[in-house]
Amino acid sequence: MESSVKLTFYGGLNKVGGNKVLLEDYAFNVKIFIDFGINSTEFSQTRSNTSKLTEVKQLTESHVLPREEDVPIQNLYSKNFIYDHTKLRYREKVDECENKTDPPSDLDGILISHPHRDHYQGLSFINRNIPIYAGVVTKRIIKALSLCSPPKFENFLHGLKWIRYRTGNMINIKGLEIYPVHVDHSIPAAYGFIICTSAGIIVYSGDFRMHGPLRLMTMDFIRKVKEISENKEELVKILICEGTHINKGVIESERMVKQHLSKLFNYMLFDYVLVHYDRVDWDRFRTYINIAKKYNWKFIITEKDAYFYNRLNKKAIYDTMKDPNIEINKDILILSHDEAKLPWKKGLYDLLERDDMKQRRITLEDLKNLEGKFFLYFASNWDYNKIKNFLPTHLRGIFICSNIDPYAEDYRFYKNKISNELLERGIPSYRIHSSGHAKVHDLIRYINEIKPEKLIPIHTNFPELFRKLFRTEKMEIILPTREVPVNIGG
Ligand SMILES: [Zn+2]
Q1: pLDDT by residue (tens digit) across 419-430?
Q2: How many angstroms separate the alpha carbon of residue 140 from the centre of ligand 1?
Q3: What is the pTM of this model?
């Protein structure tokens, strides 16, 4: 079979987040994108430079998303996705997207590796005829996040054509075989891909770690790569590997987060703990709930958190996703701080009206007067602003910034602005965390196990470092330029 494959990177090079990799395989006549994320820094810069975001053009002109004329794809973007809040055409746009009135596209699909926005958020703008391949739980999390996010255009997923996969499935696109396999990351439902192209095996690592509670999943991925490589009797041609922490040699794990919290709790001198981490970080949530249970503390989350976790609980297959269970866990209290009748709340009303749940609901006024021994969780700046004036002043509290992966501007915000503000209120800060990304020693181990002929670093601020770290190896390190195709075989 004639082989000619091209990889073009439209995001995620020389920076963390925003992966968008176009794979074109001419022998199979297939074009797919691997991830279609938005880089949060690029997005917020565009947002602050633009009076109001209403069109995809504003994002393509600033290269947050690729310009249609720079991508060899017909009708990449939806003609309908956009709506103007001032004209209240929301329902009309939903109908248009759901009725798939977009013209046909020659893109055969978009593979989504995991439900972090820097890997999927561009989907809002995609032509509704393009199939979106996502893990079963990956899709569930993306939809739950969208439903409990403000109805802004970057959360507009109506009418997308989802095709769901699980580990063990093989995706076949016109004969091109793709194997999605789970990996451990700071969010459930993260995958890497093994793609059997006409030019050889291309492996896409996705975001992963090897020090988390589900580290064996990453080992499953490596095992599958080896199995396919042996069966085909060929080496991995290309490894597209994330390198968020290629520059950092920290030894840490989720278990250590638990141990550090336990140390604090063995001599607990505080009445409450204000805590922040990413809402989608299920492992971190489980760690904190375990500590709350062990030391007989309550754990306060908002209605929105309850809604999100309840959606994950409901259809969970794995026990790890069923527990903590929002409906029955008596250590969890639910704070209402927003009376607005938002669409996502409909899914929560019945649950919250149950007698046993009513006893676990508190208001901001209750919060102010609570006696101690509780965690108060906030997921966002929005939540923080709601609660900050209701923190109990008769108690001694601390803030634990447990946010993962301090590469986003978010991190600096929480660390500096919120920490300083809380300090003025007499609340000192702690930092207890563990990252969602493999450390330098784990990255080297991972790459050595996969043994690719060529390596393309992605999702890293230090791509050049790969060249230096692997200078004695035979492996070629390719550092592509954004939007310039890399030819493989053919
Ligand atoms: Zn991620």
Answers
A1: 899 999 999 999
A2: 16
A3: 0.91
